[in-house]
What does this fold into?
Amino acid sequence: MRRLFVGIGLLLGLALGQGLELGAFGPGPTLYARLHGALALEGAEVRFALAPYAGLRASGVAVEDLRLGVEEGSYALELGRFPLTPGEGRLFPYTWNRPGPALAPKGVWGGHLTWYGEALRLRAGYAWERGAFLEVALPEGRAFLSREAVGAGGAFRLGGWVVYGDAFWTPGGGLGTLGATGFWDGVLWTVELAYPGKAGVEARLLGEGWELGLALVRDGDLGARLVAGLEGARGWIFLRELGVAWGVGMGWSL
It folds into this structure.
């Protein structure tokens, strides 16, 4: 137990020196502090994102990312909790990540071995509660195979836009995404349709140290999300038919 506290203390100390985000979101509200960073070891690296949170309903520490990575030649091995998103969607991606109690998603527990070729990437892995998976990726797209999903997706440039899409078959039925993102009149637009029953459009203005974004989405109900950011600070409000959510945060990295 003592070693566990020493290890957590070491990670927190490193995170305070690399990346820290403080914020709150509601309804609730819930307060959180996200600490993230990387620890370089001999021949390996540990990456982590930990988020202590406290609210009226619950409190704890969310382990969003915690993985050991080792590379040798064209092979790379990762063990721990890592993000895994097989889909290509920007607004409605098909993902194995789960919503975390401190806003950011939590990855899956497991591991994967990756081989990198000149224009090919092969990845075989295992995710706890999800099972084994295999991914084959080329510059134009990738295919994904597991007991929970079989599918493929890709993206390509069309003028100044990037068009993307994917299709998956799952035990619950088919899933699909088709979208495009690109700049038009100085605004970064993203338009996306997802099956079943999802659609969204997002417009973002990006400047030197600031951003302003507005998104309209339909995912079960109709919603509008407004995001504003300035020099590491960020705030958002999400209006939906089912209620209102909001959040503010400030982060920095050294």
